[in-house]
Amino acid sequence: MTALTKAAPPLARRPRHPYRAALATGRGRTGLALVGLVVLAGLLAPLLSGHGPTDQSALTLAGPGTPGHPLGTDDLGRDLLSRLLHGIRADLGIIAVAVPLGALLGCLSALAAAAHPIADTVVQRAFDLILAFPGLILALAITAILGPGRLPVIAVITLAEIPVFGRLLRTGILVQRGREYVTAARVGGISGGRILTRHILPNAADPLVVQIAVSLTVAVFIEGAMSFLGVGVRPPEPTLGAVLSQAMPYLAQAPHFAVGPLVTVTALVLGLSLVAEALNREIRR
Amino acid sequence: MTAPPLLEVQGLDVGFTTPDGRPLHAVRDVSFTLRRGETLAVVGESGSGKSTTALALLRMLPGTGRITGGSVLLDGEDLATAAEDRLREVRGARIGMIFQDPMTALNPVLSIGRHLDEVLRAHGDRDRTAVNGAGTGTGTSASTDARAGTGTGADGTARRRKSTRPGKATPSGKAARPGKAARRARAVELLRLVGIPDPERRLDDHPHQFSGGQRQRILIAMALAGEPDILLADEPTTALDATVQDQILTLLGELTRTTGTALVLITHNMGVVARACERVLVMYGGTVVEDGPTAEVLARPRHPYTAGLLAAVPRLSAPSGTRLTGIPGTPPDLSLPLAGCAFAARCALTEDRCRTTAPPLAALTDTVRAACLPAAERAEPLPPPPPPARIDRPAPGAVVLAAEGLRKTYRGRGRRAFTALDGVSLTLAAGETLGIVGESGSGKSTLARVLAHAHPSDGGRILLDGKDVTRPGRAELHAVRRRVQMVFQDPYASLNPRMTVGEIVAEPLRAFGTVAPAERAGRVAELLRLVGLDPAAADRHPRSFSGGQRQRVGIARALAPEPSVLICDEPVSALDVSVQAQIVGLLTDLQRDLGLALVFIAHDLAVVRQVSHRIAVMHEGRIVETGAADELCERPRDPYTRALLAAAPEPVPVTAAPVPAAAEAVSA
Fold first, then answer.
1. Which of B19, B32, B472, B641 has the fewest beta carbons closer than 10 A?
2. What's the ipTM?
3. What are the start-end ranges of the H helices in A73-179?
4. Which CATH topology does A24-45+77-284 take?
């Protein structure tokens, strides 16, 4: 036997997971705080607001600081704070379903594409088909079929995310498949399915995590745009986009009307972008 | 006569910050000088800080790297503190650089002419007189002979290469920005200088139309375009085959002689040092351990590390069936503070004070400096390395694996088909090592993959124990894979970074079902011990291991299904010489203990000879010669085998070169 090589003693018992390290940076913390604040507001909406989001009072277009209505009221006398908080709640409900659903379906189609060349062609052309429609046209078309409401918004966001995640994972799988450790696994007698799930997927998953944060941002925009155009969630149920749309005619007299949703959307998007950026930096290192 | 040095590095320290925020001292207190026209080799293993030192000279450190101390004086000007635009004037113009991998260093969408044109344009409007001003009058040392034949330029310091570049002779270079035609003419001239045939026509060709060696020549031409005073070459021949390496080293030698450019050659290969440089600087653990004229350092190393490194270089003269010499242990962890000598932990002659006192780089003779406390007092040379020990290996048994007329062709879209294997036949007996040597593109890696059933063959037969297994069915393939396993070249790429070492070694156990799930952990520990690793390593990820340790993990994984044939595809070519001996020793010991049949693929004929019973030489997809290892190396029959043998660089100075000695005397 040659000289026994001792493995160097482990320096830190278990190094911190890179995602946790990424989120612990200033960028990551700020992003998490912003997102957390908005999410918390949405979750606690019924507790924080004294009024129902659709309850009307005699006060219309009351300014901020009105007793009982900290953010004022809208043109129909509804409490703006309550509408904002419930709007956040509705928004988060939609994107929290639609984005993971889109990611899941996208990843499943990528796995199918990786399994067989014919499936690959089918999946790729299906992605092309979805991407051929501009987002807004797709939204209008789906609403035309399903009618306005929650479901079309979820459907549009999901459809828009499927090719994004699908292509990302497919590329990742193709790159990893050419790596030597995959050849080593094959020579080691490991089955194709296990190579895909146990060896390739964990190494191809990093960009997906970043993409989820990016997609959540996009979803906030899509939902807002659809509600703004009146093809989203049906009034009088509040969403951020709907409240903003309602505020448009009164921008001159009552600018505070639009401030709530604008600030919230900005905080949410900024927070998610910061998180995505922090994760991305960590992964690329 | 004391000409001031062209480049003087004093007490250079370079630090990095690791991802978890700890400081890492890659280079500690490095000092050396370089005179005009001198060739200096910086030699060391991975992690020795040689490349970092080179990059620090031009302040081109990657990532978090920064110079934390010391100075880099170029003609008296400190580059370590110079402004960024000043550095840009120096880069390329005064210090040119050549990188390791010629395959990736050229932009594939630009023609060679565009590459050269870009460099010429960047340096075309440079004020030569201003740059050369500081150097005027220093041209008395090594470059005298270079200029003697080419006449005198207007400013007296122009190092001409039969150049008729317009504007060059005008004293105020500012006005003379060369036109497009002039730049093209100059590009052709540069290509001719580096030995690209038919340069006018080749100028419009793209990088993929050139071979690896030609690309490296083109990169050298680009580095020379700015007529630098110093050429920094970072492992310029490591990615190239031995025969091409030889040509490139010859070219570099000629260029430094004819143009008077000083050369700093960074390498891990002692053979290259002996072949190409007058002076050598040996680095270890971020410090300079020895420095002196090549002939003297190689003939009589003062530092135990230099001696160990020299002994570890496989010699073509070492007969088959002997052990390679290595240096025990692993290189130091640079993130830890260093108390004494960096080499103390691996040194056979270590004393107590070595561990506590950092040895200064002290002059031992007029020309040789070494950083070793005991060496300063030692009068006699270091003990010579023991002659290679014989391995007691049993005689080979019956044939296990045979291949008959294997063919493999790769077809690309629209490209010509590439025949990687063209009728390869071989046999392998139990307990035998078959060495396969050849240059890149000879098909040896393809052969490994076809034999291990990683790729299917297009024709021919593979027989395992006399049974045809060329196109096995699903169940049969599983059975074949259990018998034939593979060790890969790159210990960094061949281990899944997301799995722990234990999981990696356990994967084949699970796949082949050889061990009950409950006993897997025990078997993994046993395998890790077998390859010389601590079983506690099972919980850690590959990234926390060195290259040599990772290769041990790769071997443990290959041994897990208890194979009878182990195919090793360049198992040591990514490892340092001092570590390579440990891995080769491990493989031969395993062969003896387990009766394995080994296919040992490498490009280094010296290693292959020591390890193998028989050698097969591959060239362009065919086996051109096969025979007993010693017989083939001593009496090669095929001209290609002879060329391979001739190109292998030996770490012995070609002659006891009087030239550098004379140059030393002049400057001293």
1. B19
2. 0.72
3. 80-115, 117-132, 135-146, 150-177
4. MetI-like fold (1.10.3720)
